[in-house]
Each structure stands twice: as structure tokens, then as C-alpha cells.
Specification:
The complex is a heterodimer.
Chain A (H helix, E strand, L loop, with lengths): L13 H5 L15 E7 L5 E7 L1 H5 L3 E6 L35 E2 L5 E7 L2 H8 L3 E6 L25 E8 L2 H9 L3 E12 L8 E7 L4 E6 L4 H13 L6 E4 L15 H13 L3 E4 L2 H7 L3 E12 L5 E10 L30 E8 L14 H19 L3 H8 L12 E2 L5 E2 L4 H12 L1 H14 L3 E11 L7 H6 L8 E7 L5 E5 L8 H13 L6 E4 L17 H28 L6 E4 L2 E4 L5 E3 H9 L13 E6 L8 E11 L5 E11 L6 H20 L30 E5 L17 H17 L14 H9 L1
Parallel strand pairs in A: 1-12, 10-11, 14-15, 20-21, 27-28
Antiparallel strand pairs in A: 1-5, 2-4, 2-6, 3-5, 7-15, 8-13, 9-10, 9-12, 13-14, 16-17, 18-26, 19-20, 19-25, 22-23, 23-24, 26-27
Helix pairs in contact in A: 8-17, 13-14, 14-15, 16-17
Chain B lengths: L1 E6 L2 E6 L6 H8 L18 E4 L2 E4 L12 E3 L12 H8 L9 H14 L5 H7 L11 H15 L1
Parallel strand pairs in B: 1-5
Antiparallel strand pairs in B: 1-2, 3-4, 3-5
Helix pairs in contact in B: 2-5
Classes of the chains: A alpha+beta, B alpha+beta.
Chain lengths: 788, 154
């Protein structure tokens, strides 16, 4: 361990944020900037009969009004992943227009864009645009969308399926195993639709420079290079080298800011039309109506056990909503990010998942923190606990019976799952043992029994979840074979300045994760120099050569590895320069503490002196290029597989059904840890979101496709008093296939926590015969469950 | 309408549209962009500032209503180039991640500590009910405020 890695170094980012000096997109005000407001459909499904913009064009301050008739981006925004039907039919991929043309397919779809001098004038004028709609019946439920009489979202196809898909063993084989099982546990539930709710709404500014014929797009994205590629090559057909995409401070993403959105393309197009900068920032209503949502799976599953509680097989049939159009990563979420996790941490010999993914008259669904893995984990961790409950086996005991034995991926091979992937390294029972110890499991059971009998109106419950997830997305060839249309490597450039100061350019993007600090920690250690000598740059396509952005807990595992590759090249070249200056053989040098030393002597040369020599090459190795600046692409050889144990303790009010989360214990294993303070923070935040899904959050559309949870009065985000202090610990099982040994920590909290909370509530009510409650576990649902 | 407001100790006079919110006024007219707008409907608390010493959601106050008031925004919390003990405590305890809700959290923390110099965890959580953070799970925000209260006490 070096001077910085593994230490809770305070963040460099904090001073600017704490002083209100962060620069989020909406904070920017460019000279001559105009403001954009949208006219959005109040209907979920309707024909557009006419759009009259004449009054709006006359309004004060209006610069221009655009509709689909103006021909902006007629190819629409593309989908980045192709999952074809089981029968070989190509995935159905409708055009996702920048402005709706003839038909509306979800509430909030934009029909017209109004540009004015001020935001107030743009909004005033938007109200003057007259749109004549012919409303049509809508379908928002993924299962109903596949019924014979369902209204068609895209009427060029005979039904609403975008694709269907399956993974795992032969279905008949799994069914036979279930038929012969000692016990079969069944579940039917909706993994409900969630709104990611980054607190910073999406915001875009495009600045077109007429004289240079160049754009600068300021955007609140997790993914600046991919946005540029999609925008230029697929949507607008403009040259990529003419567009600079900048995304500096971004106020949270959680997946919702990965995707290329229509508004981003539209501001880019409009700024060229009007020759002025144009800004659009979503208000919260627009965020609810137009940010990609998460989850929304209808699940029917069965798990078979032998009489000892060993799992014999699992079968799941799911309807997974895509929404009105296919968002950037949408098809990957209920398939390759979901089905591939059905092994969980168990030796389950037979697995089959069957997915039908329909279009619905809703905003598109895409990856939200965890993306497919929370849905898999929820099913596995609920059904194994329900099985244990039905068979009278302890929830911890049944897990110990079924765990994959420990393997480090070096001395023991990785674990080959039934669902395509090979786990890198794991020690699942260790996190459960530690979690139970942190909780005081045995004592808790006594306390629970006492609470049931003491008549104070409160019931106690404990819920366990032992999760695994696939991170470090992803080996390009593997995801390419699975339908990804892009590589998922990362780029890291290390530029040593003549004075030995180091600028690092990463294609990963920080929107809360603290890369400016964490990346500087491991770079400083790898070079043996002070952290103050290292600066991390990200979020600007003109600074950073290329990148694939941040999602899938990939920044360190993939982005960090690319930087390490560049550092290796720096040290290799530096050694040549050092050998020349020291008049020694390279083989006789060793590098440590920021200097090359001739082994066994006190002859050395510092990193700074070698750097200066590289840029002032007067006394220099023959044939060697000057300069010390390397860029690398790192393509991982496998995913990484963090895992852990989450345990929730709840108190349920017998009279009201209100659930009070009393304790939350998490023992996670995210591989090597660069900064424990930041890892803990990621775990805390993920857990809060997972608890939100379990107890509070749900996007609800009514039968007409109206969203009736589209504000903070209606959509219950977790508040400070919904959560306890979170008790964290970790085990460390390094990733064997990347240089830092890291696995990723961004999503673990959201993946492990949800079933732990629901298991705890069901456990509290188990003596009443309750075996399941649908999420979110509102007081009403819990109270009803107690009455039955 | 003409208004005169003292913001972070500096007097400002402007002729503004009556419908402009105080949050917009601070951001657009005064370029004090540390006050963030997360929902514009009092839901999220990112726009929390102090008016005459009390924490208020500035998206739901018209700028004209603040005529004659003294306003403190996040930019006015610290004296000079340093940081206020609350800001220091947030840094020390990793009470922020993306930073967007942070100015509102710091201003609300100031109100919590002003009203109750020695708040319990439950009192802090109760005081934070009007402010959303989607990143931290509130754990480190609560710790930051506990620590800030201790620092201010001593």
C-alpha cells in the first residue's frame, strides 16, 4: 500500500460545491443565449391533427418556434443495444423523433419547441401553441401491453413486443426439476417502476459558432463522448470533430443521465438554425415525465428445493416494459444485465429466464442504479427467503446451504454460472457471517419473540439479502456478441508535464463519485509522487481523447485500469531516460518513492528530473522520442462481481402498518478499496435508494396513461427521517483480472438492500401467515396484509 | 417592480417582473448560482437560503416579497476565502457527493443549529425533512451536522 491508496482522503471537489461555486450546466449564462420551452402532450396516445404556432410566433421575445414539420433530426435518437427475438426476428426499433410528428406515444412527449429571449417569454409563448389532438386508448402495463386487444404503441407491427429473449438451461429440463422437487416456492409480483430523480434536472446548452462552423454542447450527462458520437453520427449527421461536448459538474445521474435524449439533439440543431446559444433545463415535472425510468418488470417465478433446502432450479417468466421508444441501453437491462445474474451466490444447477419486452405508452425505461441486477437480486433474495419461511428453515441457514464455496480466481478458477458469465472471485459466506455478527442475529430472534408477546403494538422483523452483481462494464467482444453496438473499454491519458506535474485525462465521468480525489490517490501512489502533483480532468471531449462514460460501477475497474496502463508506459519510457542519465543498464534500475535508483547504490534520479529531460532532451537516449505523455485504451477481460450481505431490522406498527427501519447492516465486498470514506458513501446512498424502492417509491400511470405520481408531493423519495444510521463493514476479495483489484461500489447498495427490507417486513408478520407484500410497502399494504 | 435587497451584506436594487422567484432573481440577476433549483415547488430544498436569518425555500418566495430583507446565500456563509464550520464539517464527514443539494443542506443545517445548538440525531433528521439528497442516504449529512454543532458550541 502506498501513501494514499486505502486512506479516507477528504475530497478535493468539496470546496467548490460547499461554497456554491460548482458549475452545473444551468449555472452557465452565455452571451446572447436564448431559452427553450417545450409544448408537451397531455395525452399518452393521440393522433396529432394539427399544430398552429402562429400566435406563439407573434409573442413578445420569441425567436423561433419549431415542430416536426421543420425536419429536425428525422432519424431520431438511436438505441445502442440490439436484442433480437428468440425466433431470429430482428428487434423492433421504432424511430424516436426529436419532436412528435403524427402521433403521441407518451404523456410529456414534445410536440413543439419555442425559443425566446427569456425563459418566461418562452414559457408564455409555448402556451399559445395550439395543438389539436385526437386521443386514443393507451396501455401502460407491460403484461396488458401483450394482450390481444391492447392498443398498439407502434402500429407498423402486429403486437407491442419489441423483442423476447431467454437465457439459461433448457426450459423443459428446469420444469422437470421443479416437478420433482420436494418443495416449490412461487412468487408473482411487480418490480415497480421508479423515477431516478437526480436532484439536478437535466440541462443542455448548445452554442453554435457560425464563423468556425463548430458547436459546444454543455450537457448534464454521465457520458460526454458517447453523446457526441450518437448526436453527430446518428441523429443530426454533423461532423464529430466539429462538436465539443462539455459536462463538468453534474448533479447526480443514477443512470438517468447516461442516455442521449431528444432535447440534447434539439438544442444542438436549433442553435445552428438561429446562430445563437440556446438553453433548456427541465423543470421537475418534465423530469418525471421525460427522464428514463427504471425497473417495471412483471414477474412470475418458481424455485424448487430438495428436502434439505438445497435449490434445485429456478424458472421465471417476465414482462419488462420498454416504454414508448427504445432508450439508449434499454434492451440490455432486462436481458444481459438481468438474466446473467440469476445464478446469484448459489449453486443452483438449473436456471431459465424468459423475458417479453413490450412497448408501452409511457416514457422509456432504461438503466437505473443497478439496472437489471436489482430486479434479479430482488427475485432471488425474496424467493429463497420465502422458500425458507414455507419450509421452516432459517433464512441464514438456507443461504449457507446453497452458497458457492469461496474461490479467489487465482488459485481456484472463476465460477462458471448457468447463465453465460464466469464470476471472477468470491467469498459469499464470509460476508453473511460478518453481517450476522454485526447484527447479533441470535439475540435478535429472542428480542423478536419478546416483542410479539409484549403487546406494545410493535412487531419486529429481520431480513437478509446476500447479493452479487456484475460491474466493470464491460469486455467489448463479449457485449458485442450480446448485442451492444459500442465497445465498452475506457481511455486514460497520463500527461507528465516538464516539471514532473501530472495531468490525467479520463473518459470516466464523475457526477458525485469523487474521481478527482480517488483517481489522484492511486496515480500519486503508482508514481510515488505527492497527490498535489496530480490533477484529474474529465467531462470535456476536447480535453479527453475518448471515453465511454460512467455507469455500471465501471469508473475504477475500467477507467482506472486504463490510467494504470498509461502509467506503466510512462515508467517504461522514464526508465530508459533514467538509465541514460545514470549511465546504468535499465535492468539495474528500480523505481520507488518517485525516483529511479541503481540497485544497491545511492545513485538515483527523480521523476521530476526525468520529466524535464524528456522535454529538454539535450542529453538523451539515442533514438528515443522526446516527451512523456501516453494514452491507453483498456478493454477488460471480464466483468467484476462485487457481493455482500445486507440485513434490515424493521419495526411494524400493528395498528397502522407503518414500517420503521430500525437498523441496516451492510457487509460488502467491492474488492480492493481506494478510499474507504467514498466507498462507504456510495454504499449509504445506494442503500437509501433501495430502501426507497422497498418502502416508498413508485411511478404510477393510470389507465389513460396519465402519470399520477409526477411531483414530490406524489412520488415519495426517501427523506432523512425515513432512514437510520447505516452500519457498514467489508471483506476484501480482490478482483483477479484488473490491475487495481477493484470491483466497483456504485450500485451495490441499491442492489442488495431492497429485498433485505421486504424480507424483514414479511418476517415481522410471518407469525400471521404473511408470505409476501407488493412493493412499495406502504402502511396501507402492510396493514391489509396483517388483516388477511 | 423596483426592489432593494441586501444579499450577503451587499445592497442591490433592481426593476424586475413581479412573477420572478427569489431563486431566479439570485441566479439570473445577481449570478449567485450556488442557490440551486431542483423542483421549483418547495419539494426538494436545494434552493434554501436565509431571509433575515430564517431558512426559506427561495423558489417559493417572489423576489418582490423579499424587498427590504437581508438575504444570506451559500456564497455568503463563509467569511473571506475560508469556510464556515458547517461547510468544514460537511467536507470532514463526506456530507456531499454530487454537490447539488449541498448549498440547501448547509443553509438548513444553519437553521437547525441556530434553533437547537445541541441537536440529537432524531432532531437533525426531523430538521432535514424538507431537503432531498439522492446521493448520501443522509448518513454523512447527519454526521456533518452533529459535528458542526459540536464545533460551533466549542
Amino acid at each position: 500500500m502506498g501513501a494514499f491508496v486505502g486512506k479516507p482522503i477528504k475530497r478535493r471537489e468539496d470546496a467548490r460545491f460547499l461554497k456554491g461555486a460548482g458549475k452545473y450546466t444551468d449555472d452557465l449564462k452565455l452571451h446572447g443565449m436564448t431559452q427553450l420551452a417545450f409544448v408537451r402532450s397531455p395525452f399518452a396516445h393521440a393522433k396529432i391533427l394539427s399544430v398552429d404556432t402562429s400566435k406563439a410566433l407573434q409573442a413578445k421575445g420569441v425567436v423561433a418556434v419549431y415542430t416536426a414539420a421543420d425536419g429536425c433530426g428525422e432519424f431520431g435518437v438511436p438505441c445502442g443495444w440490439q436484442v433480437d427475438f428468440k425466433n431470429g426476428e430482428t428487434m423492433r426499433e421504432p424511430v424516436h423523433p426529436l419532436l412528435a410528428k403524427d402521433k403521441i406515444r407518451h404523456v410529456g412527449e414534445a410536440v413543439a419547441a419555442v425559443v425566446a429571449e427569456t425563459l418566461e417569454e418562452a414559457r408564455d409563448a409555448a402556451e399559445l401553441v395550439e395543438v389539436d389532438y385526437d386521443p386514443l386508448p393507451a396501455v401502460t402495463d407491460p403484461e396488458k401491453a401483450m394482450s390481444k386487444d391492447a392498443p398498439l404503441v407502434h402500429d407498423q407491427w402486429e403486437d407491442n413486443a419489441a423483442f423476447d429473449w431467454c437465457i439459461g438451461n433448457d426450459r423443459a429440463e428446469v420444469e422437470a426439476a421443479l416437478a420433482g422437487a420436494h418443495h416449490v416456492t412461487e412468487m408473482e409480483f411487480r418490480n415497480q417502476r421508479l423515477a431516478p430523480n437526480a436532484i439536478e434536472p437535466r440541462s443542455y446548452i448548445s452554442d453554435y459558432d457560425v464563423n468556425a462552423d463548430k458547436w459546444t454542447l454543455y450537457t448534464s450527462t454521465q457520458n460526454p463522448h458517447l453523446i457526441r458520437l450518437l448526436l453527430c453520427a446518428f441523429v443530426l449527421g454533423i461532423p464529430e470533430h466539429k462538436v465539443r461536448v462539455v459536462s463538468h459538474d453534474v448533479g447526480g445521474g443514477f443512470g438517468s443521465k447516461i442516455y442521449h435524449y431528444t432535447e440534447e439533439a434539439l438544442v444542438t440543431w436549433i442553435s445552428r438554425e438561429i446562430g445563437r446559444p440556446v438553453k433548456w433545463t427541465a423543470d421537475r415535472s418534465e423530469a418525471f415525465l421525460t427522464d428514463a425510468h427504471g425497473r417495471d418488470h412483471m414477474v412470475r417465478a418458481k424455485m424448487g428445493f430438495d428436502k434439505e433446502g438445497k435449490i434445485l432450479g429456478i424458472l421465471s417468466d417476465e414482462y419488462c416494459a420498454m416504454g414508448a421508444y427504445l432508450s439508449t441501453f434499454a434492451p440490455a437491462v432486462p436481458t444481459y444485465l438481468h438474466g446473467t445474474l440469476f445464478q446469484g451466490v448459489y449453486t443452483t444447477p438449473l436456471i431459465h429466464l424468459n423475458v417479453t419486452a413490450p412497448f408501452t405508452h409511457t416514457v422509456p425505461v432504461d438503466a437505473y442504479r443497478g439496472a437489471g441486477r436489482p430486479e434479479a437480486t430482488y427475485l432471488l433474495e425474496r424467493i429463497i427467503s420465502k422458500g425458507a419461511q414455507e419450509m421452516g428453515i432459517d433464512a441464514a441457514e438456507i443461504r449457507f446451504k446453497n452458497f458457492i464455496p469461496p474461490f479467489d480466481g487465482v488459485n481456484q478458477e472463476g465460477y462458471q454460472t448457468q447463465v453465460a458469465l464466469q464470476y471472477d472471485s468470491g467469498n459469499y459466506e464470509a460476508t453473511l457471517k460478518r453481517g450476522l455478527e454485526m447484527l447479533g442475529y441470535e439475540d435478535f430472534r429472542k428480542e423478536q419473540e419478546k416483542a410479539r408477546n409484549n403487546g406494545n403494538g410493535k412487531l419486529l422483523g429481520v431480513g437478509i439479502s446476500t447479493y452479487i452483481e456484475g460491474c466493470g462494464i464491460a469486455p467489448s467482444a463479449v457485449v458485442g456478441a450480446l448485442g451492444a453496438r459500442a465497445g465498452l473499454y475506457e481511455v486514460g491519458q497520463v500527461r507528465v508535464q516538464p516539471t514532473g506535474k501530472v495531468s490525467v485525462y479520463t473518459g470516466a465521468h464523475s457526477h458525485g463519485q469523487g474521481h478527482e480525489t480517488v483517481f489522484a490517490q492511486f496515480v500519486a501512489d503508482a508514481l510515488g509522487i505527492p497527490m498535489d502533483d496530480v490533477e484529474i480532468e474529465h467531462g470535456d471531449t476536447e480535453q479527453v481523447a475518448f471515453g465511454m462514460g460512467t455507469y455500471g460501477s465501471r469508473s475504477l475497474a475500467v477507467g482506472g485500469s486504463a490510467i494504470i496502463k498509461s502509467i506503466e508506459k510512462i515508467l517504461e519510457k522514464g526508465a530508459k531516460i533514467a538509465a541514460h542519465k545514470l549511465e546504468a543498464s535499465e535492468a539495474d534500475l528500480e523505481y520507488a518513492d518517485g525516483k529511479w535508483t541503481v540497485k544497491g547504490t545511492d545513485k538515483s534520479i527523480s521523476f521530476g528530473d526525468v520529466s524535464l529531460t524528456a522535454y529538454v532532451p539535450h542529453d538523451y537516449p539515442e533514438g528515443l522520442e522526446p516527451g512523456l505523455d501516453f494514452s491507453s485504451f483498456y478493454d477488460p477481460t471480464n466483468f467484476t462481481y462485487p457481493f455482500g450481505t445486507h440485513i434490515a431490522v424493521v419495526e411494524v406498527d400493528k395498528e397502522t402498518g407503518k414500517v420503521d427501519l430500525k437498523r441496516f447492516v451492510a457487509c460488502d465486498d467491492v474488492g480492493n478499496v481506494m478510499n474507504p470514506m467514498i466507498v462507504d458513501g456510495q454504499i449509504h446512498g445506494g442503500i437509501a435508494q433501495g430502501v426507497g424502492q422497498a418502502l416508498l417509491e413508485e411511478v404510477i400511470y393510470d389507465d389513460q396513461g396519465q402519470m399520477i405520481s409526477g411531483s414530490y408531493m406524489d412520488y415519495a423519495l426517501p427523506r432523512a427521517d425515513d432512514l437510520p444510521m447505516i452500519e457498514t463493514d467489508r471483506t476484501v476479495t480482490p478482483c483477479p483480472h484488473n490491475p487495481l483489484g477493484v470491483k466497483g461500489a456504485g450500485e451495490a447498495g441499491a442492489i442488495g438492500s431492497t429485498p433485505a427490507v421486504v424480507n424483514a417486513v414479511v418476517d415481522a408478520l410471518s407469525h400471521l401467515g404473511v408470505t409476501d407484500i407488493q412493493m412499495p410497502l406502504t402502511p396501507q399494504r402492510v396493514w391489509k396484509a396483517m388483516q388477511n | 417592480m423596483k426592489i432593494s435587497i441586501k444579499v450577503n451584506g451587499v445592497s442591490h436594487s433592481h426593476d424586475i417582473e413581479p412573477r420572478i422567484s427569489l431563486a431566479q432573481y439570485l441566479r439570473e440577476e445577481l449570478q449567485l448560482t450556488g442557490t440551486h433549483i431542483g423542483c421549483d415547488t418547495s419539494g426538494c430544498g436545494s434552493c434554501t437560503i436565509l431571509i433575515d436569518g430564517d431558512a426559506v425555500k427561495s423558489c417559493t418566495v417572489l423576489a418582490v416579497q423579499a424587498d427590504g430583507c437581508e438575504v444570506t446565500t451559500i456564497e455568503g456563509m463563509a467569511n473571506g476565502s475560508g469556510m464556515h464550520p458547517i461547510q468544514e464539517a460537511f467536507k470532514e464527514h463526506h456530507g456531499l457527493q454530487c454537490g447539488f443539494c449541498t448549498p440547501g443542506m448547509v443553509m438548513t443545517a444553519a437553521e437547525i443549529i441556530k434553533a437547537n445548538p445541541n441537536p440529537t440525531e432524531a432532531e437533525i433528521r426531523d430538521g432535514l425533512k424538507g431537503n432531498f439528497c439522492r446521493c448520501t442516504g443522509y448518513h454523512n449529512i447527519v454526521k456533518s451536522i452533529q459535528h458542526a454543532a459540536e464545533q460551533i458550541q466549542s
